[in-house]
């Protein structure tokens, strides 16, 4: 059974280069953007394109080591895509809020590169899966003593496996970032299933 522990995550990322840490954060965001798309399609609120443009800027920074000239504008634009959870009844509302927040944090990490930002993005990705799992479980608390819900289990396993992948990669930033972008960006399926159809 997969377990989320901030201390373990911190230890696992300490040895990673900054660009690899941000690559991990970007991958978390990539799994969250399709969740935001489901919310947007259901409610009409927000713009997936804004989050996509922001995350593309992160990948470009990873490949070229050049910060976006409009970094502050991109962060502000992401913040504007965050829905107020009290205004919407969609099951994807919290996931959309997490996605917008995670992309903004990942952008900010380009300049600040603080490990706590990585922990926060990973936590948001975990929370997205947890909230959905809790809803699918009928509101019953997910306890360690119970079998973990498949959605949450998959998210935690993906985080662990992506960190292992990053550790095995070489330090050639340009080549490595291009490889990660090809593997991990523009995902069609997010961390949550689409329950709006069928």
Structural features, described:
With 198 residues, the protein is mainly α. 68% of the residues lie in helices and 0% in strands. The longest helix is centred in the N-terminal third of the chain and has 26 residues, at 18-43. The radius of gyration is 16 Å and the shape is globular.
Biggest β-sheet description: none
Structural class: mainly alpha
Specify the number of helices: 8
DSSP strand count: 0
> Rg, please?
16 Å
Cα distance spanning the termini: 30 Å
Label the overall shape.
Answer: globular
| N-to-C order of helices and strands | HHHHHHHH
How large is the share of residues in beta strands? under 5%
User: Could you name the ranges where pLDDT drops below 50 across 5 or more consecutive residues?
Assistant: none
Kindly state the mean pLDDT as a whole number?
89
Determine the fraction of residues in helical runs and give it as a percent range.
Answer: 55-70%
Helix and strand arrangement:
Blueprint: H1 6-13, H2 18-43, H3 48-64, H4 71-80, H5 93-112, H6 115-136, H7 150-168, H8 173-184
Helix pairs in contact: 1-6, 2-3, 2-5, 2-6, 2-7, 2-8, 3-4, 3-5, 3-8, 4-5, 5-6, 6-7
């Amino acid at each position: 059974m997969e377990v989320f522990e901030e201390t373990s995550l911190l230890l696992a990322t300490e040895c990673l280069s900054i660009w690899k840490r941000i690559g991990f954060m970007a991958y978390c965001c990539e799994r969250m953007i399709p969740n935001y798309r489901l919310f947007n399609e259901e409610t009409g609120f927000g713009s997936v394109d804004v989050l996509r443009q922001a995350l593309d800027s992160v990948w470009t920074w990873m490949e070229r080591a050049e910060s976006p000239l409009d970094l502050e504008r991109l962060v502000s634009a992401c913040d504007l895509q965050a829905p107020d959870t009290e205004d919407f009844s969609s099951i994807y509302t919290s996931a959309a809020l997490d996605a917008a927040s995670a992309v903004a944090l990942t952008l900010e990490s380009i300049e600040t590169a603080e490990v706590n930002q990585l922990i926060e993005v990973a936590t948001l990705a975990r929370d997205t899966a947890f909230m959905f799992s809790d809803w699918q479980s009928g509101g019953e608390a997910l306890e360690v003593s119970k079998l973990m819900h498949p959605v949450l289990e998959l998210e935690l396993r993906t985080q662990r496996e992506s960190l292992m992948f990053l550790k095995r990669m070489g330090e050639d930033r340009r080549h490595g970032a291009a490889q990660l972008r090809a593997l991990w960006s523009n995902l069609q399926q997010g961390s949550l299933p689409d329950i709006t159809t069928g």
